[in-house]
Amino acid sequence: MTAEILSLPQAALHDQLTHRLRQMLVENQIPPGAKLNERALCETLHVSRTPLREAIKALAAEGLVALVPNRGAVALALTEEDIQHTFEVLAGLEAQSGRLAAQRITDAELTEIQALHFEMLAAYTRRDLSHYYRLNAQIHQAINLAAKNPVLSATYQQVNARLQALRFRSNQDEAKWGDAMAEHTQMVQALAARDGQALGRILQQHLQHKCEVVVAQLRDTAPLASHV
After folding, report:
1. Residues 122, 110: contact at Cβ < 8 Å?
2. Kindly report the CA angle at 175 between 193 and 212, in degrees rounded to 5?
3. Residue 142 needs a FRET pair 20 to 30 A away by CA distance; which of 59, 97, 109, 151 works?
């Protein structure tokens, strides 16, 4: 990123900058509740404030950033209740995506998901969490798109945006990460078998497990945060 951004056309600059900021938020380089320091971000990303502010607005629309009066842009911070409610909704959306995708997926779409799965398995073997998570997100999105329901996809994108950073951090628990990888293998097998009921059940269970890990992590860090 950095100097390469400056030579991009305006639309490409916006996309690249939004992607980079989203990555920083998801990967906890900007922690939940932290104010987005425009001056520091401009220096880090080598851009002016105008494109930076446009990128921040885009991320606010996605739900990753809150625009707080008299404070500016703040990285989204969810309460335990927020997290549980959002995961409940997302689990239902993913389960429905799985059931529909099993009926409607094309052979080409299935092949692409299988390829992403094997690439993700390689990233897991290397313990490359950043690459693993990007592939993981692509797989979940590909299953959602294979359902071929634009209303479902739009709702899924909006709800999932609120949980991206938490889903990323949930894989920092080594044992739980291994469990998640195993569940992904089961997902791909069920999808290949066109077994929508099984896939929906696995996806719902997968999201429930994610929620449990995230809530446990939140509870572990809460006492520490109270002393900061």
Report:
1. no
2. 80
3. 59
